[in-house]
Design brief:
alpha/beta; Rossmann fold; eight-stranded mixed β-sheet; six-stranded mixed β-sheet; 10 helices; 14 strands; about 30% helix; about 20% strand; elongated
Length: about 300
């Protein structure tokens, strides 16, 4: 079985007795390798994926190492090709970055960084974060944190938030309990927004989640709330978010993802007040990739169920 491995990551597939070939993710697959049965995907261009979908008739499995398989699902692979995601590979790194963004936003490290650059000892900040009327805004201890999209990443993140004293509620397709935390159904989100201090999105990009954070959701949040997105940029109505920040209807926000990436230099988001932007770096370090690929290729060969299968 021929396996094509992207040139964007080092993998150890020595446990497999298969023929592994490295390919370039920003170029068409060479003709001599279009007979491959397994395609591993990581940081591929959309053109490369579309070309592979149309020109590799022997494909049986496309294994993306991204937690969200949206780019692969939209590439046009045949229904007979199994597509598996990198769910769980990014749980630790994304949870860490999400926690960093939450703390930076709640403690307003962006404000302090500006003070540092201007060599200013920010006394007004010091007074506000210690005043009884406003001190709760600057801590996660006792804060109500709502995580929208309560999958495996949230499973790593929620205990970290709880350890700092936050009250964590998840939002998912159905209500119940996950990872030891209460979860409400998506249609119940409006009922928890009014008491939410921090709204975090780890939503995938699907037709149903497009612009999920919109004017209605933002209007339901307290003006003192913070919004953090480490999911997908397509899930945020950026004009609505920009307006909420400019008009003071949202205390702060942090985005690791945007609709267009890289974010264009002329995007108004760069100069939006009280907004922290990081360049889609929450994940980018899929842990356990070799083991997942080895497991799925072995299962494919033996006709067993595949891990993280999302299509095919």
């Amino acid at each position: 079985m021929k396996i094509l491995i992207p040139d964007t990551i080092e993998l150890d597939l020595s446990a497999l007795a298969d023929h592994a070939v490295v390919y370039q993710v920003d170029r068409p697959i060479p003709e001599e390798h279009r007979d491959a049965e397994v395609l591993v995907v990581w940081r591929n261009t959309s053109e490369n994926l579309a070309d592979a979908a149309q020109g590799m008739p022997h494909l049986k499995l496309v294994q993306t190492l991204a937690a969200g398989p949206d780019s692969v699902l939209s590439a046009g692979f045949a229904d007979t090709v199994a597509i598996t995601s990198g769910r769980s590979l990014h749980d630790g790194p994304v949870a860490e970055h999400a926690l960093a963004l939450v703390l930076a936003s709640v403690r307003r490290l962006d404000v302090l960084h500006e003070s540092q650059k201007s060599a200013t000892w920010n006394k007004p900040y010091n007074a506000e974060q210690s005043a009884p009327a406003t001190e709760q805004l600057y801590t996660l201890d006792g804060a109500n944190v709502t995580i929208w999209g309560f999958g495996s990443i949230a499973g790593r993140l929620a205990p970290l938030l709880a350890a700092l004293g936050a009250n964590v509620t998840g939002v998912a397709g159905s209500k119940g309990e996950r990872y030891g935390f209460p979860v409400v159904a998506a249609d119940e989100l409006p009922s928890v927004l009014a008491s939410t201090d921090v709204l975090m999105s780890i939503l995938p990009a699907t037709p149903e989640t497009a612009d999920a954070l919109n004017d209605e959701i933002l209007a339901a949040l307290p003006r003192t709330a913070v919004f953090v997105n480490v999911g997908r940029g397509a899930t945020v109505d950026e004009n609505a978010l920009l307006a909420a920040l400019q008009e003071g209807r949202l205390r702060a926000a942090a985005l690791d993802v945007t609709k267009v990436e890289p974010l264009p230099a002329d995007s108004p988001l760069w100069n939006a007040p009280n907004l922290i932007i990081t360049p889609h770096v929450a994940g980018n370090r899929p842990k356990g990739s070799s083991a997942l690929i080895t497991s799925n290729v072995t299962s494919l060969r033996e006709g067993k169920a595949l891990t993280n299968q999302v299509a095919g």
